[in-house]
UniProtKB/TrEMBL annotation:
Lineage summary: Bacteria, Bacillati, Actinomycetota, Actinomycetes, Micromonosporales
Gene3D superfamilies the UniProt entry points to: Biosynthetic peptidoglycan transglycosylase-like, DD-peptidase/beta-lactamase superfamily
Top-level taxon of origin: Bacteria
Signal peptide location: none
Family, per entry: In the C-terminal section; belongs to the transpeptidase family.
Basic and acidic residues composition bias: residue spans: 702-738
Source organism of this protein record: Micromonospora cremea
Protein name per the record: Membrane carboxypeptidase (Penicillin-binding protein)
Region (Disordered) location: 697-738
Length: 738
């Protein structure tokens, strides 16, 4: 630390003359103090300090140095990634190998345990040597003084000018440094100062603090450092860039290591034989890069990047981390937080395996999958057959195999995808809430003329005329149970007309469906009552929104805002009050139970009332081995997308097969079975080892009488299958984008 040397080199002739005179005085003082007893010298140093601990800058009393934030999976052990501007993490002194503590004292401040913050002998000797122009400049700064300088030059609460002033080559700055160091020594123990120093010192190669340095150079925690490793690291502090064996000169690093080992032997910390043995050890490095950000998640787990990105987006909405988005982003990078996320590694692994089983990474089509825990809103998994990466894609491939777009959660440029008949859930809930029962009957025709004006294919005499996809299996008298189980379009369009389309749209929003597409948002806001095709899932949504909406039913009407964390702890170990489940009742419990009861029909299970008589995803029952489960399939117009949502009381999972870049590229009906299988297997992993939990049957009042009088509708002979809106998919896609 050649501070005084650089001071002498940068001052004017008059200042240099003053420095020479001061050097002469200090040289004489050095001769005088050399004969003084150590205790008397310590007392003189302490009394020379001007100021008190209370008057110190806040950053010296309560360090605010930037630290790395860690993101873990829900087990609190599996590291997802870290965020940092400065690669640094504090550790307790007890977690640092004793030889490392001894090495840094021997290398930087042999009299650390005897001086009062400023070593007058060392200062005088360094000043005289520097003014005389010796071959090696000497700093004379104690560990405490170095600590003061490091804190002030890295304090994130200070301005750039104030941080720069912490290393000004002026005598005034040096005197202030001595004052601060002496004040610190009056109030803090030596071990506390040493611990703080080791947590802030720069060791080169981007590693700040002993924890980061130990990982960077040797791939191990500081408690496991050997004598030779400790001496090497201690030697780096004097000139981190020059001595770094990774980015600098390994021979210089070894020479500096030998100096530290000899110094440790001189102080009695080790024997000469131990020093010689450590000198003989070859330089063995295990460089370990610390991941930084969502594109640097753990090796082999780039699929975790989508969850990480969702967490980052959530983080910047939380006032607990700052008043503005930039402040919250800075808090994540420099606040030293420990974040235990809700990501379940096993559920995530299964979801990723299933998503890539349906479509490979190099397929333009995608299967984004999301898993949510009912009753908490905790997001357990977010998977898609894409690498979360900024790497370039082959020519002609827009967002595959690499992308950082939020394909699972939506946002930015991602509006979502049509989820087809899964939206019939919202019609059923609105009807049940209005007083209708599961037994509400209707003789569903192959095609149903409606009151909504429409022209072109799919219209009947100028009105929208939706049709059943499989008339032979779907047409006829239906109630909510089998209407939902067989996914009868005309039954649910009729039911939505009875309830009011605006009530159905409001129900979807109540359960968390967000309209990200401008045209969808405008329809919902300005003309929801006339959005006839809404029940058939023409609005864009995402797997996360859809899974969480169904999770609300699984939780018997309790909606929980999706959340990606279990706990957040700050750098001091205090819990931050964020991430707790934010839940509210949005449905009567009996209404939710009734909807769940009908949702048993599609997956091949039976309602307690015995009214299920066919389903579109009956294989789910076999995959779950008869465990209580419910769900719903969805196919949008011309099979542009295929969707399945499944849920138990413990988990809800949704997957949507689509082409994120081109909604006119229909995935086709053949993939539906694969989507159902994929989602069901994710559910199976999520509930594995958990006690089997049954759905609560709805009340007899809400079930109603299975055979009520039937309302009949006119039958249209033309049995053309038209799943959704009479407008072409391409036209609606063009409309959505202006």
């Amino acid at each position: 630390m050649a501070i005084l040397g650089s001071m002498a080199a940068s001052r004017s002739p008059l200042s240099r003359l003053f420095t020479v005179l001061l050097a002469g005085l200090l040289a004489g003082l050095a001769l005088a103090v050399a004969a003084l007893p150590g205790n008397l010298l310590l007392g003189l140093a302490t009394r020379s300090a001007i100021g008190s601990y209370a008057a110190l800058p806040d950053s010296l009393r309560t360090p605010a140095t930037p630290q790395r934030s860690y993101l873990y999976a829900n087990d609190g052990k599996t590291l997802i990634t870290t965020f940092y501007d400065v690669n640094r993490t504090d550790v307790a002194l007890a977690d640092i190998a004793p030889v490392m503590r001894q090495a840094i004292v021997a290398a930087e401040d042999r009299r650390f345990y005897s001086h009062g913050g400023a070593d007058l002998r060392g200062l005088a000797r360094a000043l005289v040597a520097n003014v005389k122009g010796g071959e090696t400049e000497q700093g004379g700064s104690t560990l405490t003084m170095q600590y003061v300088r490091n804190v002030l030059k890295t304090d994130p609460t200070r301005t750039a000018e104030e941080r720069a002033a912490a290393t000004d080559p002026t005598i005034g700055r040096k005197i202030q440094e001595i004052r601060y160091a002496s004040a610190l020594e009056q109030s803090l123990g030596k071990d506390e100062i040493l611990n703080r120093y080791l947590n802030i010192a720069y060791f080169g190669s981007g590693a700040y603090g002993i924890a980061a340095a130990s990982q960077k150079y040797f791939g191990k925690p500081p408690a496991q450092l050997t004598l030779a490793e400790s001496a090497l690291l201690a030697g780096l502090v004097q000139s981190p860039d020059a001595y770094s064996p990774i980015d600098g000169d390994s021979d210089a690093a070894l020479a500096r290591r030998s100096y530290v080992l000899d110094s440790m032997a001189d102080t009695g910390a080790i024997t000469a034989a131990q020093a010689a043995q450590a000198k003989a050890e070859p330089l063995t490095l295990h460089p370990t890069a610390q991941p930084n950000g969502c594109t640097a998640v753990a090796q082999g787990h780039d699929d975790w990047g989508y969850f990480c990105d969702y967490l980052r987006r959530w983080w910047v909405t939380q006032p607990a981390f700052g008043a503005t988005v930039p402040e919250r982003e800075q808090a994540l990078r420099a606040g030293g937080y420990t974040v235990v996320t809700s990501l379940d590694p096993q559920v995530q692994a299964t979801a990723q395996q299933q998503a890539t089983k349906v479509y490979g990474y190099d397929n333009k089509r995608a299967l984004p999958i999301a898993a949510v825990q009912p009753g908490t809103g905790q997001v357990l998994a977010m998977a898609v057959n894409r690498h979360y990466s900024l790497a370039d894609n082959p020519a002609g491939q827009a967002n595959y195999p690499n992308t950082v777009n939020p394909l699972i959660s939506g946002g930015a440029s991602v509006d979502g995808y049509q989820a087809g008949s899964t939206f019939k859930l919202f019609t059923m809930l609105a009807a049940l809430e209005s007083g209708r029962t599961l037994s509400t009957g209707f003789d569903a025709p192959a095609k149903l003329p409606t009151r909504y004006a429409a022209e072109g294919p799919g219209s009947c005499d100028g009105h929208w005329c939706p049709a059943n996809a499989n008339p032979d299996w779907m047409d006829g008298y239906r109630m909510m149970w089998d209407g939902f189980g067989r996914s009868v379009n005309t039954y649910f369009v009729w039911l939505a007309e009875q309830v009011g389309q605006d009530k159905v749209v409001e129900m979807a929003q109540r359960l968390g469906i967000t309209f990200r597409a401008d045209t969808d948002a405008a329809f919902a806001k300005n003309d929801a009552a006339n959005w006839g095709s809404f029940t058939l899932g023409v609005a864009a949504t995402t797997p996360l929104d859809l899974a969480n909406a169904y999770a609300t039913v699984a939780a018997e009407g309790t909606y929980c805002t999706p959340v990606p964390v279990i706990s957040v702890t700050d750098a001091k170990g205090a819990k931050v009050p964020v991430g707790q489940p934010s839940c509210k009742r949005v449905l009567d419990a009996d209404v939710a139970r009734a909807a769940a009861d009908a949702a048993r029909c599609p997956v091949g299970q039976q309602s307690p009332y015995g009214q299920c008589n066919g389903g579109t995803a009956t294989g789910v029952n076999d995959i779950l081995d008869g465990r209580p489960v419910a769900g719903k399939t969805g196919s949008s117009e011309e099979n542009a997308t295929e969707t399945f949502v499944g849920f138990t009381p413990q988990v809800a999972v949704a997957g949507i097969a689509a082409n994120p870049d081109d909604p006119t590229d229909s995935v086709g009906s053949a993939v539906q079975a694969k989507v159902i299988d994929a989602v069901a297997r994710v559910i199976a992993t999520a509930v594995k080892g958990q006690p089997e939990k049954a759905f609560v049957a709805p009340s007899r009042e809400l079930a109603g009488e299975p055979r009520r009088p039937v309302e009949r509708a006119p039958v249209v002979p033309d049995r053309r299958s038209d799943r959704d809106d009479p407008r072409s998919l391409l036209q609606r896609w063009l409309d959505r984008r202006g």
